[in-house]
Design brief:
5 helices, five-stranded parallel β-sheet, 130 residues, 20% strand, alpha/beta
């Protein structure tokens, strides 16, 4: 079975490096990166995605508004989507719900919690995660 694909929509190279480092710790998936909404729309139109991670603050679109556009562009309705932000957990949760996301992660990321959540959202673990 081929590794699952995580699409991370993030314009900050340091955050991308951090996410790649977390995935390298054992998530068993490959990371694809889109630096803005336009690249994300192209990415979902071109290839299958198993999990979407979307930063809130992007250069060309608000991350909490991007999910609807990505669904139109080809992101399957069953693909889980998480909003990733430095906002407080209350604000992040509210924005994620309003944008149709399945959950949210707040920065700075807790590595162990992120790995557990990745396992859940990628179908490796039956325990809930957000």
């Amino acid at each position: 079975m081929s590794p699952k694909t995580v699409l991370y929509v993030e314009d900050d190279p340091l955050n991308v490096m951090l996410m790649q480092g977390i995935l390298d710790l054992g998530a068993g998936c490959r990371l694809r990166v889109a630096r803005n909404g336009a690249e994300a729309r192209s990415a979902v139109a071109a290839a299958d995605v198993d999990l979407l991670l979307c930063d809130l603050r992007l250069p060309d679109v608000a991350g909490d508004a991007l999910l609807a556009e990505l669904r139109v562009a080809g992101l399957a309705s069953g693909v889980p989507a998480l909003l990733v932000t430095a906002e407080s957990e209350d604000v992040a949760t509210r924005l994620a719900r309003a944008g149709g996301f399945d959950g949210c992660w707040t920065k700075p990321l807790d590595v162990a919690a992120t790995l557990r959540s990745l396992a859940h959202w990628l179908g490796h673990d039956p325990r809930p995660g957000s």
